[in-house]
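Re: the request from the purification team.
They wanted to know what the chain is likely to look like in 3D before they choose a buffer screen. I agreed to run a prediction and write the result into the notebook, where they can find it.
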Amino acid sequence: MERFGIETRGVYETPWFAYHGPAGEFLLLKSGAYPTGDAGDEYRTRTVGLACSPFHPSIRFMYHQELTANESRTPPMIRAKIGDSLIDLTTLRPQKDLVEKSFDLEPLQLQSAIENGSFEITEMFDQSMIKKPSAVVRFSTLGLSANVVALESKCASKE
């Protein structure tokens, strides 16, 4: 089961991996399956990614999450803790059943997150609409430093 990426024991994260997008962009991606319900029998996949920012030497940080029908009506506010920085994520493309958020990281913020060992994403719901506590999801940065070198060289070559 491990060889095929099927995991049935709670939280599961992929390692960081390089991906060449349809437009030829170079991305570093990591996905995780996390329990969503109190019973722990429902899971949702969330993905974080890093790409070249148009504002070099910054790196674009992206967050992607599918929403349940109830959450789609009032999507959560997303806050990222990157190193010592707290950042409220802006909507990249508002969609009915999907949250895609992004922002640009300075190289020192990215290095700080690598040293801290994770990116932390907090999903906060409007309690007047959805009685659901905030959820905190951590994406490990283990193995990211080796891949960031390739990303930074791709971004520098675009200048």
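For the purification team: Helices lie at 69-73, 107-116, 144-157.
Please add any questions underneath this entry.
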